């Protein structure tokens, strides 16, 4: 009997601690400032803290966060990076990349405010030779994990897949948010157009609450179903082919 | 009896009591690194945290159309800052295989920092004072203002407030 009660209590305590962590992460992330003037051309939407916290929890549950060098392509104002820092990724080796100087300057403010130690980089991910990284092949990759919320490809079709491919060039594991309505497309294209060398799986289904951001948004806010994808290279030797193919 | 307390109720009360104790003692999570109600001022004009470290420089190359290698980028620094961080020899050891040694050596020279040996040998990899030097160069030396210069075309990529701007012009895109 006592054993049973102990067991129940431990379970409850465990759940509580998880819930606490999630709540703590979420309230920490609510301090992250959003875009001052979001640009529709870049499909800039702030990842809601609630969603970001859950994404990072999923990533952490796969053991791809603690002590890892993380990159965020299209980091915007740095929401996912800030969360990754709280979950103990390796800040000094982590980088946020964005093309928009305004977003980057807000990101800088956020990192300053939250006393985080990331590097930021201004580069265009969409153009072919946009990412200025040399390829570290001898010993793993430039980064351990990429966590990103790329444009959904509503304005520029195919941008979401481009982001995934670029990310896979510099990290063996990529977590990425995509619209659920494009799931079949992403899976069907041989894991985001990377052929058989990349494994894609949907590890969570979430809701992205988009408040009315742009003038053409009629409703106050819309909930969009999104999938958290986990892309992983099957074999590092196939990397070249996977990315260029 | 006016106030009947059944055995079930006693167990229930005990359980609730236990739960309360549990909620009083915070579960074994690490303390937050940054207190949520941090009163630290938001200093927008004196950025301190966003910087370009040499480890980042070590990963960057010039992607201008037609460039073959584009690596390593020359550093023309205008404002450099050295901020000491905690040293961990194992961490640096794990980092070494990812580092391009000649590039780090060149960067260190360009910034007028300590001289590094031409080659890194096995003895170096376990020598703490050597690792400390590498740690300082890779992680503690920060370039705040200046430019990165493509070794082949001479194209300059400006570093503003610690953020390198690697955006390409239209005619540089492949």
TrEMBL record, chain A:
Keywords: Methyltransferase, Transferase. It comes from Nannochloropsis gaditana. Coiled coil: none annotated. InterPro entries: DNA_methylase_N6_adenine_CS, rRNA_MeTrfase/Polyamine_Synth, SAM-dependent_MTases_sf, Small_mtfrase_dom. GO terms for molecular function: nucleic acid binding; rRNA (adenine-N6-)-methyltransferase activity. Pfam families: MTS. It comes from the Eukaryota. Residues 68-157 form the Methyltransferase small domain. This is Methyltransferase-like protein 5. The keyword Methyltransferase applies. Belongs to the methyltransferase superfamily. PrmA family.
From TrEMBL, chain B:
It comes from the Eukaryota. GO terms for biological process: rRNA (guanine-N7)-methylation; tRNA methylation. Keywords: Signal. GO terms for molecular function: protein heterodimerization activity. Residues 1-23 form the signal peptide. InterPro entries: Trm112 (IPR039127), Trm112-like (IPR005651). The keyword DNA damage does not apply. Gene3D superfamilies: 2.20.25.10. The keyword Signal applies. Belongs to the TRM112 family. Interacts with TRM9. This is TRM112-like protein. It comes from Nannochloropsis gaditana.
